[in-house]
Structures are given as structure tokens and as C-alpha cells.
């Protein structure tokens, strides 16, 4: 399965989600490769830190930022792995569009902390609709999309309102919403700077449960058991 962690807005957690999903799937025994399609190379740096610190298992990471060769190189990488996870650039760019076309599933993190995060996600969903229809017309492999509520606090009214809007967007654009919500937790950042995922770092049980549930939901989508 080829998965893109994508949103047109930066700071919503797409890179953190990509890294933690990679760790969770590797720990379940899947052969996983990360594709870093963001010019900031944040995921490449994370993978390098992981290797420097001797964190096992090692997770390969390939930087692909040339739109002209992107699709071909993604297909070549996919031959050697069960799962590719693409950390996409935070913009409506040719590379982001290529990643959506190449993917079987888009994971779209949406921050509930306010600002324009939810409405920028609507722009992405409009583009997703175009791509989904184009792939159907061409007889290509279908692409699904799932919204992921991120940086969430259940006792904050603003976050509850934002989560409700996410549910509305899912209905409007005929996409899914992950049942699990990822909390606004310091441990995600702490694990990141160590080249780890929260399943490997520290003792924040709630974060570990969240990522475990996210991984299981994702596998369920991939296998059709959900």
C-alpha cells in the first residue's frame, strides 16, 4: 500500500503522523519505506537521527523531490516494500499532486487548534475529488482519503467545534474520518527529536494507544476488514 500523509498547510502534524505510522507498521512486521517529498527533509533528518542513535529496527527513508521522476521512482521503491509512506510537502504543488495520484490512501491530519487549518483541508479535498474521478475514468487503482483529527483536546470547546467541522467535510466530500483522535501531547515532539516514534519512546500510555489504534484502523482499511 502507498500512503501519503498530506495537508496543504504546515504545522498540522503530517510529518509526525508519517513517522509514527512507519514505526507502528514496522513493529507489526511490515516492510516499510518512508518517502520524504518535502524540501525541508525533516523525515530524512529523523531517519538519520534514528540510525545515529542506533534505534532498531532501522527504517529506510528516500528523498524524492523531483516531480518529473517522482511517480516512476515511487513505483520502483514500492516493488521492494509492503508499505510506502510519503511525507508530502505542505503546499498545493506538482509534487503533492503526483503523490496523491501515486497513493492508495491519503491520510490527512487536521489540527483542531484553530486558524485556517480546517478550511485549507477543504481545498485539498476538492483536489482529491478531481484526482479520484480522473483515476476512476482511467481505470487506475482507486485512491481513498481519511481525515485524521490531530492535536486534539476533548475539554476545549474550540477543538470540539473543529472536530465537528471535520466530520462535516468528510460527509460533503465522501471521505472517511479515523475514529481515533491524536491528542496534543508533548511526547510526539520528544520522540521525534530522538529519531523515534511514541511506541518506542517514554511512558505516555495514551499516545501509544492512539498510534496503535491509528495503525489498526489503517490496516483495516487496507485489508477491507473495516
From TrEMBL:
Q: Which residues form the CobQ/CobB/MinD/ParA nucleotide binding domain?
A: 6-179
* InterPro entries associated with the record: CobQ/CobB/MinD/ParA_Nub-bd_dom, DNA_Partitioning_ATPase, P-loop_NTPase
The record's PANTHER family line, in alphabetical order, gives:
COBQ_COBB_MIND_PARA NUCLEOTIDE BINDING DOMAIN-CONTAINING PROTEIN (PTHR13696:SF96), P-LOOP CONTAINING NUCLEOSIDE TRIPHOSPHATE HYDROLASE (PTHR13696)
Provide the protein name. Plasmid segregation oscillating ATPase ParF
Origin species, per record, is Neolewinella agarilytica
